[in-house]
């Protein structure tokens, strides 16, 4: 037939397996109907037949046979003398089907049509990809590291689609090499220059939630529900769980025998400490559990202000606050309360202590070493001793001791 081979264009169809055939056929037909309208002014009397499997296309023109010199509409009618050239059996009143040679449209028009078709197929593939991952937001996927950059990692899924894991969505201890398979949760799908950008995350609470769902069958089955998760990625996480079956201990089920279930998750999260606690509607009890591993002595709640004053024994204060204040920060996020920590015996707010090494830019190293020699390795431990006691116990001069105390005192007074 006098047609145009579209094997190359249709090859894109085979690559776009997620696009349904009717949609693809409709796109091809639409592109060539546009071509017809540009040449003839209308496409109403044309049939476009697409064969996606063979990679070809046919266009037929329908016109009614009329007497010679009796044509009023050349788009819809054909003279008898011209009709019998197509087939001698045609008679006046019959409908003529004539195959259109696509080469009649001109090489330039056909090339433009092929480019338009390729562009439309590309847009379809982008839309399908965007929808596919938009429907998978919150799910864990596994992908292969293809390229490692300073600010992000490029990954490929099983179909070769590109995915992005930004540095901000990586656990601080994460380190990946090309070719390595990693797990992450689908966080969102952005559109950039009309192309979908699939963003993954390993820092999202959803990542931990899905890992728990994989490891704990009771969560997957709905017998245990995760009420809330808060994380400081790579450092600590707190998970509040509740059981819908009184016979199931939700914390025990999540941790597993000798920590068997939680250990795999901890390794995946680069040794992130995970505190699993029982959820309760009792605010005071929830705050107490949220401050794990610290043990609270007493507590004062101001529910309207969402504020809690917590009193602990001196040796429990540092546990409640945690390294870099992470434990208390997560407890606040988990409970929705602002929590202030106080020493039980003094009733005063716990002040953060500061290592003497932090003052190395203001205090001579040999002075710091001398203070450490007598057991004073933090700012508070120095200030707790009088100037006379420090002068007696160290080899430092009185003026040096006064200068050191002034520097340390000024640091605490900043707050």
UniProtKB/TrEMBL annotation:
Q: Please give the biological process terms from Gene Ontology that the record holds.
A: DNA-templated transcription termination; transcription antitermination
The record's annotation in SMART domains points to:
KH (SM00322), S1 (SM00316)
Show the GO MF annotations. Answer: DNA-binding transcription factor activity; RNA binding; translation elongation factor activity
Its Gene Ontology cellular component terms are:
cytosol
Task: Please name the Gene3D superfamilies in this protein's record.
Answer: 3.30.300.20, Nucleic acid-binding proteins, NusA, N-terminal domain
Residue ranges constituting the S1 motif domain according to the UniProt record: 138-203
Keywords on record: Cytoplasm, Elongation factor, Protein biosynthesis, RNA-binding, Transcription, Transcription antitermination, Transcription regulation, Transcription termination
Lineage top rank: taxon: Bacteria
Self-association and partners:
Monomer. Binds directly to the core enzyme of the DNA-dependent RNA polymerase and to nascent RNA.
Family named by the database record: Belongs to the NusA family.
Role according to the record? Participates in both transcription termination and antitermination.
Q: What is this protein called?
A: Transcription termination/antitermination protein NusA
Q: Which organism is it from?
A: Flavisolibacter tropicus
Query: Which gene carries the instructions for this protein?
Result: nusA
């Amino acid at each position: 037939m006098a047609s145009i081979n579209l094997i190359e264009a249709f090859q894109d169809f085979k690559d776009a397996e997620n696009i349904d055939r009717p949609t693809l056929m409709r796109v091809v037909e639409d592109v060539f109907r546009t071509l017809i309208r540009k040449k003839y002014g209308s496409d109403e009397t044309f049939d476009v037949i697409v064969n996606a499997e063979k990679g070809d296309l046919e266009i037929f023109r329908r016109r009614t046979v009329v007497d010679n010199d009796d044509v009023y509409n050349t788009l819809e009618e054909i003279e008898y003398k011209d009709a019998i050239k197509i087939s001698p059996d045609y008679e006046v009143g019959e409908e003529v089907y004539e195959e259109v040679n696509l080469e009649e449209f001109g090489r330039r028009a056909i090339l433009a049509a092929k480019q338009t078709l390729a562009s439309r197929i590309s847009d379809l593939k982008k839309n399908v990809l965007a929808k596919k991952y938009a429907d998978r937001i919150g799910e864990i996927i596994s992908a292969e590291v293809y390229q490692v950059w300073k600010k992000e990692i490029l990954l490929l899924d099983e179909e070769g689609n590109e995915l992005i894991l930004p540095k901000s969505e990586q656990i601080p201890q994460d380190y990946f090499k090309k070719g390595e398979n990693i797990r992450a949760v689908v966080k969102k799908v952005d559109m950039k220059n009309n192309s979908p950008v699939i963003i993954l995350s390993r820092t999202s609470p959803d990542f931990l939630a899905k890992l728990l769902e994989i490891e704990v069958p009771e969560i997957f089955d709905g017998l245990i529900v995760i009420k809330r998760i808060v994380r400081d990625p790579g450092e600590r996480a707190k998970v509040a769980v509740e059981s819908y079956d009184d016979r199931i201990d939700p914390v025990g089920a999540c941790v597993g025998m000798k920590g068997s279930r939680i250990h795999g998750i901890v390794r995946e999260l680069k040794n992130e400490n995970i505190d699993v606690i029982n959820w309760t509607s009792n605010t005071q009890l929830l705050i107490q559990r949220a401050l794990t591993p610290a043990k609270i002595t007493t507590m004062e709640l101001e529910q309207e202000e969402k504020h809690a004053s917590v009193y602990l024994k001196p040796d429990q204060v540092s546990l409640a606050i945690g390294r870099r204040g992470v434990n208390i920060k997560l407890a606040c996020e988990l409970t929705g309360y602002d929590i202030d920590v106080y020493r039980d015996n003094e009733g005063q707010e716990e002040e953060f202590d500061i290592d003497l090494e932090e003052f190395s830019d203001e205090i001579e190293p040999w002075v710091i070493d001398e203070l450490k020699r007598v057991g004073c390795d933090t700012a508070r431990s120095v200030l707790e001793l009088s100037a006379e006691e420090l002068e007696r116990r160290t080899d430092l001069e009185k003026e040096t001791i006064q200068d050191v105390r002034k520097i340390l005192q000024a640091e605490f007074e900043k707050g």
